[in-house]
Amino acid sequence: LVQGLARDTGVPWPVLIGGTAGPFVLVLGFLVLIAYRPWWVLRRVAAITGRLPGHVGEKVNELGELFVTGLGVLRHMRRLAALAALCVPIWLAEAAMYYVIGLSFDLPSALGGAGQAAAVILAVTATANLATAIPSSSGGIGPFEFFAATTLVVLGAKAETAAAYAVALHVALLLPVTIVGLLYLWAGKESLAQLARMGKGEAVGAAKSGTVESSSDLEHAP
């Protein structure tokens, strides 16, 4: 797959691999640095937010503390390994769903065979799910379709097929969980407004917990 893409683009395959994997490695290294040196980030965030209006600065500080707290798992290798062991089967199951839906669009034929299609689907799984982390509409509508379709087009699928596949795929992902969620709301006699208030309360509690942990890190900082 990589060699075929290298032939099509004229870029040597080692450069393609390095250019694709390099940014992810750098980001991962930066996240690990933050996990082990949270005070380093919090000091710099505080230096910036100190110049902002009070309410805005406090909100940015809360977000920074939540972000640093969430990365704390990277300091515990055993826990991280357990999470990875649980995540891999989930991602593979999702990729299998992507592949099955791709059969409806005859993607294996369009991409040069079942093996090629499987490799492309893994790439689509990665890029589409990473795209949902971009702040956007609920459910990642927009970025998901764009990156899924773009990945397919870059790797050999036709634009119209890629676009239709991306939309159908996202509907298949969102519709079942949305229906189940609405059923749970109905069964529990809860409203979306109540859930929003509960979520806000949990976020504030997590921020306060993160503040305590971050303060401890700052006290032990060199």
Structure description:
The chain is mainly alpha-helical and 222 residues long. It has a domain at 85-190. Helices cover 82% and strands 0% of the residues. The chain is built from ten helices and no strands. Helix 4 packs across helix 10 (192-219), helix 5 crosses helix 7 and helix 8 (143-154) packs antiparallel against helix 9. The longest helix is centred in the C-terminal third of the chain and has 30 residues, at 159-188. It starts with a helix and ends with a helix. Residues 210-215 have low confidence and may be disordered.
In the predicted model, the low-confidence regions spanning at least 5 consecutive residues are: 210-215
Count of DSSP strands: 0
Structural class: mainly alpha
Determine the fraction of residues in helical runs and give it as a percent range: over 70%
* Helix and strand element order: HHHHHHHHHH
Biggest sheet overview: none
Shape call: globular
CA-atom Rg in angstroms: 21 Å
- Give the CA-CA distance, first to last residue: 48 Å
Contiguous helical run count: 10
How much is the average pLDDT?
80
Strand content: under 5%
